Fold each of these.
Amino acid sequence: MRIATVIIGITAIAVCLVMMRREDVRLRHELQKIQTQHAAVKRDIWDRHVEMGHLLTPASIRFRADAMALNLIQISNAKVVEDSSAATPTSMPSSSGHNQRNLNEPRR
Amino acid sequence: MNLGDKIRYCIIFIALLGGLAFVGIKQGLMIDAKLHPKTPQQADISQMVDDASQGQRIVMPLPARPGSIYATSRQAWTLAAASRQVPSCFVDPKYLREKYDEHDIRQLAQNIADILNSDPAAVYEIMTAQSQKRFVWIAREIEAVQADKIRELNNRALGISYEWRREYPNGPLAGSVIGFRCKDGSPGVGLEAYLDDIVKASDGKRIVLGDAGRRGIYTDIDATKLPQDGGNVFITIDLVIQDILQRVVSDTVSEYKAVWGTGIVLDPWTGEILAMCATPSFDPNTYNDTPIANMTNHAITSPYEPGSVFKPIIAAAAVNTGVINYQTKIFCENGVYHASKGGRISDHGNSYGYITVETGIIKSSNIMMAKIGEKLGNKKLFSLLHDWGFGQDTGIDLPQESPGIVRKLPKWDGYSTRRVPFGQEIGATSIQLAMAFASFANGGELMKPQIVGMVTDPRGKVLYKAKPKVVRRVLSQRVAKETLQALRLVVTEGTGKKAKSDFYTIWGKTGTAQVPGPHGYMEGAYTASFIGGAPFENPRVICLISIYRPDRYKGYYGGTVTAPAVKSVLEQTLEYLNVPHDLAPKADAIDEQARQNRLGDDMRD
């Protein structure tokens, strides 16, 4: 009776080990697939990041503003002479980006 | 002894026996291996077993991205340099030949050509020309969509590999400052080279056990090395101002057919470089097609005799020491001065008697500066140059900065005493001169130029943030203000009238320096410069433009060549920075604007 218990116990342990091993292999395979997908997603993010950089260059903004006939870019040619306080450009395409940097902040 | 004890002892006995057997067999095998070395055939078999084991292991790279460089544009950070991976398609011709017949290969070539929009015959030629090779590129740097379609063909002879590509979205804008990174990822020139330790990435890898078809099925987690992306660098360059400066300098160089030109725009209060250019420049995206000479950042690497732009620096330094003040009258010898052991000095055909130091600056008198040099003496003059940072690096975060040329004091003679004060016998870089003028604007402090504003790690954690750094105080606030007043008069009444703006109180100084050659000064070769700033009351920016060797028949005076260019840059830059006009517009300017508007309306009608 006892030996039967030992054999059953050992068998149970063996089955558990096999199950664990199987699960380990499955999860590692899953991990490998996720890492592959992760690399692909990162590539996609990098692509979009660079594309966005291309769209936000001054030349690109100027081109689009010209194409849309928005009189925003040639600031120096658009001197408003009636009032010096009105001399600032009427509207600047403010980038929606984070990390906003205020160039008008008071200096030392 | 009951049954349980018997079993227990039995198990222990078997375990001990097994252990002894294992040790004995292992020792026996070792002795056997020593006594009977393997035959070559056995060694081959052993090697093959090892190879097979290794063959199951696939090393898969985990790409790490080099850091990006950002610059400012319209009050937000904009990408100036970044990397991305682009797919390329390759074929294993040997495998293809072994596994597919002629018809299949032709069909495959047709499919690939359809995806890549190329000639099927050419693709077929690539796939079959080197049939013993295991790797041949079909097409490099293809689109991601094309790569996906090639994967969908599900052909084991085809593969997609990724290569890094560094891109500079702004093209030639700030090219000489940002520099470039080579195709293999190694740094080239400019900031890319200087900041390589921050920007470079360290690729990761994972070891995968593969099946017979080398498809990864099992990751060896312990052997995985995670990728380390590079840090990001945020520079102080403002791309809009850079665009303004670069176009103006480029136009000036073209108009006057000069050898090169350089320009700097900076914030005098912080030392931040807002724009820096050298023309001819280059596009870092196509650095391979660029002559090396075009990659030189002349603003920091090329010292030149500054000429008259140096006068306010020495005059201010002399006033600050108390040797003179701006109202001290100095006799200017009516145009020609024969100094004892100092050669002949003239005032470009002008004849001045007693004039104040301020007037001497406004009129740009060489003789007056020579006499200030005599009052200071060589030792003091040399010490002042050192205080103002000449003959030393400014410490800007860019590679290959030149310290300029200041000869050692024992080599100075009577000629040096009279000529250094008006910018001869000395070599200064544009950045040194611009920083010296910044001290007039900020109340007398010599600032360290800053071009790297911030460094972050890949996750955005700030590792370094630049703070304004004062090198030393070179002038008292009073002297700085008086110098600024003299420089304002240079623009309103003196040699810099072409820098006069209708909207801003621009101040500055012209310079026209002869270019030294191997046998004295070269005939007809000049460096035309103008350094100025605005507005007068609270200067926001300093701008320097130097044009090296303009065509003398088109013009070579600083007041003619560079003063209008600096005016243009300052006006556009201040408008962009929303700095209000500090001059009331003239009535005729309003009339002219109205007339042009009417003209435009008429033409549209």
Amino acid sequence: MDLNVNGVPVSTDSDPDAPAVELLRDGLGLTGTKLACGNGVCGACTVLIDGAPGASCLLPTAHLEGRSVTTVEGLDGAHPVQRAFAAHDAMQCGYCTPGFVVEAAAFVDRWRAEHGDVDPGRAAVATAMAGHLCRCGAYEGIYAAVRAACAGEHDDPASAPRPRVEAFEKVTGRARYTTDILPAKRLEAVIVRSPHAHARVGAIDAGDVPHVDLLPDDRTLRYVGQPVLAVAAATRSQALAAAARVRIDYSPLPAVTRPEQARAAGSPLVYASRDERRAAPRSGEGPGLPGRWQGNVRGPSGFGRRQATAVRRLSRAAERGDDRLVTAVFTTSVQVHTPLEPHACVARWDERGDLHLHVSTQAVTDVAEQAARRWGLPPERVHVVAEHVGGGFGAKGRLGVEAIAAAELARICGVPVRLVFDRSEELTDAGSRPGTRTELALLADASGDLAALAVDAHGDGGVSVDTPTALFANLVYGTAPRRLRDFDVVTNLPPGAPFRGPGGAPLLWALEQGVDEMALRLKEDPIALRRRWDGNPKRHALYDRAAALPMWQRRNRGAQSGRIRHGVGVAAANWPYLLNTGAQVELEVREGRVVARAAIQDIGTGSRSVIADVVAAELGLPADRVRVEIGHNNGLKGASSTGSKTTTSIGPAAQDAARRLRRLLGDAPSVAHRLEASEGARVVGGRGRDRHGYLTPVPLGGMAVGRGFAGAVHVAEVEVDTRLGRIRVTRMWAGIAAGRIYSERLARNQCEGAIIQGIGYALYEQRHIDPATGVVLTDNLEDYRIPGIADTPEIEVYFHQEGWEHVNGGGVGLGEVAAIGVAASIGNAVRDATGFRPLDLPIRPDRLLEGMRP
Amino acid sequence: MDFLSPSTWEEALAAKSAHPDAVPIMGGTDVMVELNFGRRRPPALLDLTRIPQLRDHGPDDGYLRLGAGVPYTTIIERLRDRSPALAQAARAVASPQIRNRGSVGGNLGGASPAGDAHPPLLAVDALVELASVRGVRRVAAREFYHGPRRTARRDDELISAVLLPEPAGPQSFSKIGTRNAMVIAVASFSLALDAQARTVGTGIGSAGPTPLRAIEAEKFLASEFDWDGAASPSPATVTRFGELVASAARPIDDVRGSAHYRRHALSVMARRAVSWAVTDYRKEIARCA
């Protein structure tokens, strides 16, 4: 079969029924085209076929015969929209970027031919980009880029400034992700997963296919989709066929698939013995909270202040029917991370016995340490690479089953083994934010001050435990008496994982709506009430800004009638400041440039750019004289991209390294002039200590909790169609108090993406289970609904940069604090518009209509 | 799995006759999803993309004959006036990438109740043309859908075209999705008025085991509609029409929506469709006057 790809004639004998994306990626090495959903929903695989965009995952290879195909590589970085994407930072992790760029190139060309060089506006761009999903939520930049390219603003190849140093690699498809590592001689592995919600495994007969056992020690499977073993074969389809031939002897056990069922007396136990309970996986990222077990319920792990006083005040207020007592039960659904790059690993053992792992991870150094421990290797003999990472959001923080299985199979087979999850696996067993059921009680005294607070939270994290939620209510609204209790309810469902502000998002969904309700009871402006209750001076600055916003000032007062109603809501957020105290950056002068190295990775937050910007500014160098190499465990002390701590850890280390280099080279006349003569000069900078030290006296695993809390205030404006129950977020303002902003556009992009994910959490995202079988039903991106570009409100982000002078570098992380309050601000806006207080996430149309029924 | 690539229609019919279990594939937008996730492994795929006449469209004895493989994009761009409801539905299909390749024939072949093309075909009383080595027959869309993913098409038949009657009155299609961005239908509704015959057609999508008609609602509106002056129907009439449409649905609760919400959404869409129809009808009267 003959075709033309990017202007080059190609002959192939590929399977005619295989999807074209396989030919392009595996056959022709054009890995800019990504396979992410396999459903034609996400658009990451978009290519042009005779000039028209098509989803290459749904395109049989046979249909390319005689056709002319253009992939992102064929645009050659020369299309104006590619420059526009780079200039407007229309990306984060970049995994969806090639698909967006290809579609946008076709749209821009057609638009300009039909309309001339004019701005098409947001609606036309949304329609054109409807077939693309960006899990990072970089839609604001995408709107700006496509509109500017249509208006002819990026025709000049003289490059506009690019806020993100790797932008060009991402818009051209040259950025290499783990899934793009395709060694010629390799095996492809797939995981055989449990079809039972609860079963004991007897004999396994895998025949002569190379395989590795992935069962837990007790050979008991506790959810549908749990790994049983992995097999490897020359191609993925052969591996799938081999997997289908494996015979496994299951003895099914009774299972529980709903938290209510799990809590009932006499229901089957997920963990029957103390040993089994001890081996339960954790969904949290901290050291883990203590808790007693009773049946399938673990807890409480209790926190608080003057707990007895809190309980007494609350029960008395309930007895006397006090109007200043707000109580409600809030629930949140399980939210799945589903980064567009699935979990993936390519493992290889070299002739010296060193282990090489290409892995899609948020933590190259942690994965290397865990691998070294697991396989009994000295740390320097494990080489972890994650050059670009297609999103993580918390789900890629550990050495996972993809890496374990690939490495074991590579050892057995003596060749590199590649293991990539498909979207169904990614949506079933690759990480999710546990659901919650939170009972909230909030009492104000006669003067309107907070008198008592109680939070009982039950986490729904499947087989996993440790879902602290109530705990975070210790950090807010002064020192009023409070009782905060966390429970886990285990079920035979897949385990949770840390997800961007774990615990914070579900707590604020309850707490910030409770505070809003209190403001209504006290007939007080919700911002004014928070300002009174919240002692944090940095957030005071945000409250003042928020109160002055036109959308806040102009908001509707009183009940509305009519089909379409508008509302404005506010929510505040508070989040701990974490850092890696030992993070290092190394600088070396090479061929007239400064090469910066760090043992970190970039999951889309822009870590490369932070280092590059700091070093270039400190040394007075143009951007092209600094090169950043990250994504390897290179012996330096690193930082994982978790807990919003990468930038605040690595920024000061880069600064320190740059100062050391400047001292080494001498100042005069300028560093730039001395680089040529200083080949090989090398320094290592560290993350200097904060003034007054940290809250944690000794770093745990290199991590410390710093002094102060990052803060955020979100103001959401919604439009509610009360007839169809549909909610549209029309505008969102985010005030962020995280101190110094290292790279303004990238930080803003993070906050915009946080809002998009918050909108998904608030309105759409819900993992559905078949309660009879425990099967995850929402295992595709059609039915697990993440927000698309048309769901993007107009967003404004304000950074309050003062108040962090004690922190080395002056700034702390913001990726989580910018996300956790979003849903509550939308809930409060819906209440403002309709009078209905949404208690359950997501605020689905049917729930809204039901709630509004008189 | 065999991959059959006939280059003429006669070869395609012969291949389907010889391999009745071969799955036809055009744009791939339905079939490839099932292949990608191993949900279906048919013994053979029958590739119809090389057969040019499947992409033809033109007049045919009072009908618009639309080849089964005409992509949605073509319907939107070139056939809007000749098939208003279907063109609106085509615009609501997924995304530009999918519309460039997906076709009405594919929707009919897969017969998913969520397919956007079905409600307009029901509402306008379209015909589905089925062909085999035994000959060609035309089946009313209203007789085509038999059960979940089961249709009047026999195993040796291929869908060659749909035939749309000349529009004789206002037509509309609306769809409720699951989010603002690209969506699969939670429920969809199409309404078509025939001013000459003074009849009303309806089509309901995503709210039953098959695409459905609301026959009671059709009769009711046909008798209540002011065919001469297009006076606005009373609120009670509009409400009743909405109720009748909702009660014709046979929805279930699933991950996309609850049965109750689907019925509710249908009644809202049906009421809105009546008001659009009245407005369009009046415009038409004014234009002819």
